[in-house]
Design a protein that fits this description.
Elements: E1 2-9, E2 17-24, E3 28-31, E4 36-43, E5 46-50, E6 53-57, E7 61-65, E8 71-75, E9 81-88, H1 90-99, E10 106-108, E11 112-114, H2 116-129, H3 135-152, E12 153-155, H4 167-178, H5 187-193, H6 198-209, H7 213-230, H8 235-241, H9 247-258, H10 262-269
Antiparallel strand pairs: 1-2, 2-9, 3-8, 4-7, 4-9, 5-6, 5-8, 7-11, 10-12
């Protein structure tokens, strides 16, 4: 298994990360993110599952994931590939939407966008972000996001979830877990929160999200761990603050999620 991963931060855009990663022989488990992800491949091809459908991302196209959308990823036909990714936090999306005159957050129609001009713009953005002068990259970011949202975005609207937990219940659960990531949660307590038995809750959660509640909680903890690592906290303190059993538990979960150790991520993104 081989990989090379680099992170770049864009000045004046807190929380926004530009990532370049080369993977060979690594398979991402099903997971979610707290932020928006915009990806492209410029070498090889990436295969991923999204809402029950398999997609192949090739050079010239983009992948767009909204927060809490379950997906996985691997090299198509088990071959290596290079992906370039923008992690856009909700605050940045709200900022872009406001600059465009909107009041609400936007969602990507995704998960695959065929737009050669947008692909080239994002590829240029990644290359400019590696330069010392941020003005060009900051300007191009706004042009690219405007094009993406106007042509491939839509206002946030309720999600269909007749077979599973409702959108209101999913949002309530997410908010509840995010305020208590350090707590020890039980299936019984989560089920009782929605007046369901354990079997009903587990079944309805999986129907809505496609993963188990524990996998979802772990993904939220790993996502939040990035904030502590970027702020310079010690890995063992981040683990303790977020309910991981110990530092090694966080390291294993982080590596499965990003194919990168917390220490390596911290070195690349330290504020």
């Amino acid at each position: 298994m081989q990989r090379h991963i680099e992170h770049h931060l864009l000045p004046d855009w807190p929380g926004l990360e530009l990532v370049r990663a080369h993977y060979q022989g690594f398979v991402f488990d099903r997971h979610v993110h707290l932020d928006y992800h915009i990806g492209l491949v410029d070498q090889g091809a990436q295969a991923f599952m999204h809402k029950g459908h398999r997609h192949i991302l090739t050079p010239g196209s983009l992948s767009t994931f909204n927060p809490d959308e379950v997906h996985d990823g691997e090299g198509a036909e088990n071959r290596d590939y290079q992906v370039r990714l923008i992690r856009l936090p909700l605050s940045a999306m709200a900022r872009v939407s406001a600059m465009m005159g909107g009041r609400d957050l936007r969602f990507f129609k995704g998960p695959v966008v065929q737009d050669q001009a947008l692909y080239q713009g994002l590829l240029t953005l990644h290359r400019q972000s590696e330069q010392a002068e941020p003005l060009a990259a900051q300007s191009l970011l706004l042009f690219v996001m405007e094009h993406l949202l106007r042509h491939h975005g839509e206002p946030v609207k309720p999600l269909a979830g007749a077979r599973g937990l409702s959108p209101f219940q999913l949002k309530d659960l997410r908010d509840y877990l995010m305020t208590s990531l350090d707590a020890k949660h039980s299936l019984v307590a989560l089920a009782e929160r929605y007046q369901l038995n354990q079997y009903q809750f587990l079944r309805q959660f999986r129907a809505a999200m496609g993963i188990t509640p524990h996998a979802y909680l772990t993904a939220l903890r790993v996502e939040r761990a990035r904030d502590g690592l970027k702020a310079g906290l010690r890995v063992k303190d981040v683990a303790a603050n977020l309910g991981f059993f110990d530092q090694s538990h966080l390291v294993r979960a982080f590596r499965r999620h990003y194919n990168l150790t917390p220490q390596q991520y911290q070195q690349q993104t330290r504020r």
